[in-house]
Every structure is written in C-alpha cells, then in structure tokens.
Automatic annotation (TrEMBL):
Residue ranges of every copy of the NACHT domain listed in the record: 305-427
Protein name from the UniProt record: NACHT domain-containing protein
Record-linked InterPro entries: NACHT_NTPase (IPR007111), P-loop_NTPase (IPR027417), Peptidase_S1_PA (IPR009003)
Organism field: Streptomyces gibsoniae
Cited SUPFAM superfamilies: P-loop containing nucleoside triphosphate hydrolases, Trypsin-like serine proteases
Signal peptide range: none
Highest taxon above the source species: Bacteria
Entries under PROSITE patterns matching the protein: NACHT (PS50837)
Length: 427
C-alpha cells in the first residue's frame, strides 16, 4: 500500500490545542510537540477506532530544534484485528534536491471543522521541495490545492494539521508543523525524519514501545533496479553462509563434511563482561564472552547496536556470524532481534581483508570479500546511509601487530558512522 493508512491517522486533543497524528503502533502516536506541550490532559482518537483514549508524552523535542513528540496511549487506539496486518512504518529521507511531487499528509484541520465543531479529515497533496528551507532545515510542501480563505479570527485554516505525517510514496519523510507566513496558506513546513532520528532519546523511546529501531530509506532514488540486486545479494548470502563446516575431524569415510546451518546451529549462550575489562580496540562497545551458560544470544543481543564478542577457538563465534548473516538475508529474525529487520548483512573476515592491502570502503565490501555480484553504483553507500547495514566483522584478534593501527582507524570509522544499524566484532 502506498502512502498513509487510514486506520493509523489520529486526531490529537491537547488541553488548549488540537492537532493530528499517526500511529506507529496500536498505542504509540507520532505528533507535533507544540500540540501537547504544557497540556495536563492529552487524548487521541482514530476514526472507527476504540474511542477517545488518554495519552502521555514519552518523548518530545523542542519547537526550536525538533517540534515532534511521541505519545503513549493508555490502551490500544484500534482493535487488535485492525493492527494485526500492520508492518513497521518505513521512514524516508531525500538525498538530492529533486522536487518530489504527489507527497501527501492527512490530518484534521480547522477548515474541515463543521459548524457544530465536529472534526473531519483533509488529504493535502503537494510537492516536497528539498531545495527550500535548507538553512532552517525544515521540509517545504507546496500544495496543489486552491488555498482556503483565512479564518475570521485571523488564525490559519490549516490549524489542526500540526502533527500529521508527511508521506512520499510509502515512506514517512516528516511531520507537519507550521503554516508559514507569506505564502497565503499555500505552503506547509515539516520536520524532516532525519532531524527527528538524531534527537536524543528518540531511538530509546521508539525501541522501548515498539521493540525495533527505525531506519531511513532513500526517497530520492529509484529503488526498483536496486531492489532486484538486493534480492540477488540476499540469495547469495543465504547460499554462501548457509552451511556449517567442521574442521579437525576425519571425514574421509563420510560423504558429508558440512551440514545445513538450519539443522546444525545451536543458539549460543553469552556472559556480559564488566566495564573494567574492555578491549583496547573498541572501548565503548558492550562486550560478551561465549560461555557455558549465562544468557541466550538472542536475549543478550536484543536492542544492542554494537557488540564485541570474545571466545576461544571453536566456541562458535564465526558460526554465530553465519547465522546472523543468513537470518538477515531472509529477513527472518525473531521478535527479540526485531531491530535487525530489513538489514543488509556484510560479512567482513579481517584475516582475509588485511592481506589485500588497504581495508575496503563500503563500496568495495563485496569485491573485497569475493562476492561474485556487481552492485549498482553507490548501492553499498546507500545501504549505509539508509541505516540498514549490518556489519559482521570476524577475526579482530587475528590482526598482526604491524597492522593494528590502521585496522583500528578503519574500525573506528565504521563504528562512528551514525547510519550503521548494527555491528558485531568477534575475537
């Protein structure tokens, strides 16, 4: 389905303001912060939903830096069967200045309020213009509609649209916040999704209440040929890493020296290491040891974005990397690892890469690891920018001393990339 879903569009009712919102989950509402700030009482309601339900803010930016908030309803705003078919909201960003026609936002503006005060919805369609408002950093939506007449009290006829989700196709690219002066109600501005994602606390609140992390897709590029390549690449990863090889045993009398990972893989158990015993290479990364039994790997890695894994030779580190790679290729993670959904795996064996000379940039990941596929231009870079990269780096402890400094610089560069969804290093 393209664009917003009608059963996820909400009206948000603050103590002194009314706005709009969009359901990220059955209870989590995305809206504009100025609609609810300072309100002792906030409610949300979805047409054909479960009625007017009280909400409380669980995260919000400020009007100056990010006029957006997340509200948690006291109960589900829609019936369970309505929400059952929902997938995660897909967030988007623009990477160029190309105007994006046919973008849309649906909300509950004042111009649609009846004489008796009853709210109704309005679907606004327009052109998103990334080249406008670049200094202030907001998105501009120039409307294709004939602007409505001003209200008699001088207020905006679009009052009440604040908090409406702005969509470019299937991607949620921003949140409507203002009807700017000087444009005769023919333009709205919005907070870009990129600005929302970088504000402190947003990812934490999102994960706490939805069990997954949001990612940003590139709305400025055609994804059709890239989607075809990505499907081929996922199939390759599944084939290449889908078998478990056992070394050190005599298989001369056996027809099989390897088994399908699906049937041979047993979930590891990990123990968390104290902050006093950090690896020198990655001092700020949560570290785990493969152990005889502390915590299942799915639970230990749940919600984590970067992990350093230690273990003796043969303890299962490389096998875990294989399992993560093929599970990501199939997009088949359990709910505990749901924050890795839609990730694209890159398996990077340091013992091989270091022998090739210069360590690879993202655009050379596939060639450096011998992947027999030729990606579209800038494909890997786009995956990194969109936040869908899952980096699986094997063999940190196998780097010769003479190569450790340049390896550390390379790892630090990957570690500091704000767009990498998840990274595991093993040693």
């Amino acid at each position: 389905m393209s664009g917003p879903r009608k059963e996820r569009i909400a009206a948000v009712l603050g103590a002194s303001r009314q706005g709009s919102g969009y359901l990220l989950g059955p209870r989590l509402v995305l809206t504009a912060a100025h609609v609810v700030v300072g309100s002792d009482s906030v409610h949300a309601i979805v047409p054909e939903g479960r009625g007017r339900i009280p909400c409380r803010p669980v995260w919000q930016g400020t009007r100056e830096n990010c006029d957006v908030a997340l509200l948690l309803a006291a109960d589900d705003l829609v019936a369970p069967e309505t929400a059952a078919g929902w997938g995660p909201v897909r967030w988007g960003q623009t990477s160029d200045l190309k105007p994006r026609p046919n973008c849309q936002a649906i909300g509950f503006p004042a111009v649609q309020r009846s004489g008796t005060g009853q709210l109704d919805s309005e679907q606004l369609v327009g052109t998103l213009k990334p080249g406008s408002n670049m200094v202030r950093g907001g998105y501009v939506l120039d409307l294709v509609h004939t602007p409505p007449a001003p209200r008699r009290d001088g207020g905006s006829p679009w009052a009440g649209m604040s908090g409406a989700a702005l969509f470019d196709g299937e991607l949620l690219v921003g949140v409507v916040t203002t009807d700017p002066d000087g444009w005769q109600h023919g333009r709205l501005t919005a907070v870009p999704a990129t600005a929302i994602h970088i504000v402190a606390g947003f990812y934490d609140a999102y994960f706490e209440h939805l069990g997954q992390l949001p990612t940003l897709e590139d709305a400025g590029r055609s994804r059709a040929p890239r989607a075809g390549f990505e499907s081929d690449y996922r199939s390759y990863v599944e084939r290449n890493y889908g078998e478990l090889r056992i070394f050190g045993l005599d298989f001369s009398r056996s027809d099989h020296a390897q088994w399908p990972l699906d049937t041979a893989y047993l979930s590891l158990e990990l123990s968390h290491q104290s902050s006093q015993d950090r690896a020198d290479l990655l001092e700020t990364v949560p570290r785990y040891d493969v152990s005889s039994g502390r915590q299942r790997v799915e639970s230990a890695l749940s919600g984590k974005r970067r992990v350093l894994l230690r273990g003796l030779a043969g303890s299962g580190k490389t096998t875990l990397i294989q399992w993560l790679a093929i599970t990501a290729a199939r997009d088949d993670f359990s709910y505990r690892l749901g924050h890795l959904d839609d990730c694209v795996p890159f398996v990077l064996p340091l013992r091989t890469l270091i022998r090739q000379g210069a360590l690879p940039s993202p655009g050379n990941f596939l060639a450096a690891t011998g992947t027999p596929l030729s990606p579209p231009p800038d494909w890997a870079e786009e995956v990194m920018r969109s936040g869908r990269a899952l980096l699986l780096i094997d063999g940190v402890d196998e780097i010769p001393e003479r190569d450790r400094e340049r390896t550390q610089e390379w790892l630090t560069g990957l570690f500091e990339s704000p767009r990498v969804r998840w990274r595991l290093d093993s040693m």
